[in-house]
Amino acid sequence: MDTKVVRIDESHKDEALLREAGEIIQSGGLVAFPTETVYGLGGDALNPASSRKIYEAKGRPSDNPLIVHIADMETLPAIVKSVPETAKKLADAFWPGPLTMIMEKSDLVPKETTGGLDTVAVRMPSDAVALSFIRAAGGYVAAPSANRSGRPSPTRASYVAQDMEGRIEMILDGGDATLGLESTIVDLTVEPPTILRPGFITGEMLRQKLGRVEEDGTLFRADSGQAPKAPGMKYRHYAPEGELVIVKGAAAAVTDYINGRLLEGRRGHKKTGVIATDETIAAYGADVSRSVGKRADAAAAAKGLYRILREFDDEGVELIYSESFDGEGISQAVMNRLLKAAGHRVIDV
Ligand code: AMP
Ligand code: MG
């Protein structure tokens, strides 16, 4: 199949292109589209055959449920058993935006879309192209991140093309994703509501609206002994092809340790990489060094992380050391993704 890649701009939304993309979805095809978090691989959420195609294109296990994207609050009641008060509050505060809510599903949503579950994950993205596309597609677009399973989520259209060329009908190129990490997922079917994946909408922000909100114990630890509640979180995700290790500790000790390992790696004829910050990058002797930005700027790290992981793959880097990004708020989302990319390999120095 030929994949048609079209540039589409927020300021000059080409209505004919959006109609064409919408028709592809309504006739059972797949279209990748930009959102503020990462690019999504969209299909008709109400069509079981479309969801099966998404799993196939991604090479994703079919027990890993998809997020249903909507564009208008009026379309929500049809796909859930009832709209919980908690969902109304959070939608008022954070939709459209990078928040996914889990609710009991209605019969309209096929189990193929929810990976066999009786619950459905729903998000209303804020990206203007995404909203127009969802409306043109009939209002319900099932979309996981538009990467092949196990690859970092794509933050620009060329990364989608790397993974999906020839597998899907169309890619809408809306430029770089403004946030760069996937949405926060909160489960509203349990009491208290529980965060299954950290993101830009932080636990603190959710607590301000709902009172008590918990975090799934598996988010930051490999050895919690619990199964993650978001089925997707159990897979090794976001993984670069090289071996990635996170190094934690006082700044000078981290630099020394990493430089020692890099030297060893190069002696073993391995291509080496480092993930650092603007403050420290000059101190490293790696073949490929990348900064995520200023240490205090967690949003920049979120935006750049997946691009950097893909660049290491493109450069054939075999051994990667990363500084650690501990902190509150968005840093937690960055660290959660980095830990998954590293398969939880962390060294304390
Ligand atoms: P992605 O679409 O690639 O951002 O991944 C979607 C994430 O949402 C995966 O980790 C899924 O396991 C999770 N998810 C989707 N639907 C549900 C659901 N009904 N219950 C729990 N987690 C879900
Ligand atoms: Mg994904």
Question: Secondary-structure blueprint of this entry?
Answer:
Layout: E1 4-7, H1 15-26, E2 31-33, E3 40-44, H2 48-58, E4 67-69, H3 85-94, E5 99-104, E6 119-123, H4 128-136, E7 141-142, H5 157-164, E8 170-173, E9 184-187, E10 194-197, H6 203-210, E11 214-215, E12 243-248, H7 251-267, E13 272-276, E14 288-291, H8 298-314, E15 319-323, H9 330-341, E16 346-348
Parallel strand pairs: 1-8, 2-8, 4-6, 5-9, 10-11, 12-15, 12-16, 13-14, 13-15
Antiparallel strand pairs: 2-3, 3-7, 4-7, 5-6, 9-10
The chain binds adenosine monophosphate and magnesium ion.
User: In angstroms, what separates the terminal alpha carbons?
Assistant: 51 Å
Oligomer: single chain
Count, helices: 9
Number of strands: 16
Give the overall silhouette: globular
